[in-house]
Amino acid sequence: MRFLITGGAGFIGSHLAEELLRKGNEVAIIDDLSTGSIANIQHLKGKRGFSYTIDSCANVPLVAELIDQCDVIYHLAAAVGVKLIVQSPVRTIETNIKLTEIVLELANRKKRPTFIASTSEVYGKSLQLPFSEDGDLVIGATTQGRWSYACSKAIDEFLALAYWKEKRLPTVVARLFNTVGPRQTGHYGMVVPSFVRQALSNRPITVYGDGEQSRCFTHVSDVVRALIALMQDEQCIGHVFNVGNNVEISISNLAKTIRQLTGSKSEITFTPYDKAYGAGFEDMRRRIPDLSKIRNTLGWEPSIDLMRTLRDVIGHERGDAVSAGDACSDIA
After folding, report:
1. 163's torsion region: left (phi>0), alpha (psi -120 to 50) or beta?
2. How far is CA 309 from CA 221, 238, 290, 318, in A?
3. Which residues make beta-bridge pairs with 51?
4. Fold assignment, 2-326
5. Angle 89-110/148-167 helices, nearest 10 degrees?
6. Which sequence spans correspond to the domains of the chain?
7. CA dihedral 147, 151, 153, 156 (to 10 degrees)
8. Is residue 245 classed as helix, strand or coil in its secondary structure?
9. Residue-by-residue pLDDT tens, the chain, 332 positions
10. In terms of C-beta density within 10 A (0-12 exposed, 13-18 middle, 19 or more buried), how is residue 257 classed?
11. Residue 331: what pLDDT?
């Protein structure tokens, strides 16, 4: 089959492309490199069935041509990272909503099955843990730009589901929970690569807030395995699925664990949210996915624990045996 991945030079997109190629498929990607990197797909250049285009999904004629030539679409192109979202809310809203509108409209012309990447952020400030796909979304005030990302991705979900219900375009939505692994950048506030790089250079490991907020981290290869399975099973069409790991760790304990695994001498420091992101910044204290739906539908479970995930990231940052080209080698 021939797959199109928007945002394919990004962290998750490049791993997905790698695995689809390994399975013998053809993969075309489009990425404007605003947050992705050509380095992420350098090892894919020259592989049979792989092609890439450096451009934006806002280029409608180009995207229409790419969709004409594919069988399945993975729409991953989006604004990512807390820092980018807080600093550029206009870009966040326009990128997420406009590009999804374009992709869905063009996909519908050819009835190409389309995957839409969403996020655990849509649950907002909900306290109904673990987060279930049919649970209420509790978004903060519009005066807090931090929630623009959650709202824009929720609209993406509504659009995808509406295209299925009204126009019978096969769509699948996944809410991704803190995906980590080799090739992830720390430039936009991604906590694991940021901590690892600080630890390896013996610089202070900077924890925002009091460090008691917790997250669940999922290895990118587990996420890729889920994304592929979701688009292979027709019973997933028209549904939203959580994709993540349900084992949580506090950010302060994450910092301590990374310091220990790297043998670092880094001091762990704490920076108030207001200083990091501006006055009034709001965060979610806990994010735990309910995995019942994807487990019952596909039998999918995360298979890689946090220690191995962190070692993979550390090894990649050190340039050790865990190379970008080996990152998805364990995917079934």
Report:
1. alpha
2. 10, 31, 21, 14
3. 28
4. Rossmann fold (3.40.50)
5. 10
6. 2-326
7. -170
8. coil
9. 999 999 999 999 999 999 999 999 999 999 999 889 999 999 999 999 999 999 999 999 999 999 999 999 999 998 776 666 667 778 778 888 999 999 999 999 999 999 999 999 999 999 999 999 999 999 999 888 778 889 999 999 999 999 999 999 999 999 999 999 999 986 656 899 999 999 999 999 999 999 999 999 999 999 999 999 999 999 999 999 999 999 999 999 999 999 999 999 999 999 998 887 777 778 889 999 999 999 999 999 999 999 999 999 999 999 853 333 333 333 32
10. middle
11. 30
Among residues 32, 17, 14, the alpha carbon closest in space to that of 78 is found at 32
What one-character DSSP code corresponds to residue 78? -
DSSP string, 101-129: HHHHHHHHHHT--EEEEEEGGGGBT---S
What's 271's DSSP letter? E
Six-digit token string for 251: 């950010």
Tokens standing for residue 141: 């005030």
Rounded to two decimals, the pTM is 0.92
**Helix or strand run (H / E) with residue 275:** helix 273-277
Give the residue ranges of DSSP H helices in 135-177: 148-167
Among 120, 119, 121, CA closest to 100: 119
Q: Hey, which residues are catalytic here? A: 149
Angle at 87 between CA 153 and CA 80, to 5 degrees: 40
* Residue 231, CA distances (Å) to 162, 173, 203 in order: 18, 10, 42
Distances (CA, A) of 71 to 55, 74, 155, 279: 20, 10, 25, 46
Beta-carbon contacts of 239 under 8 Å, excluding residues fewer than 6 positions away, are 133, 172, 173, 293, 297
Roughly how many angstroms between the first and final C-alpha of the chain, as a whole number?
A: 18
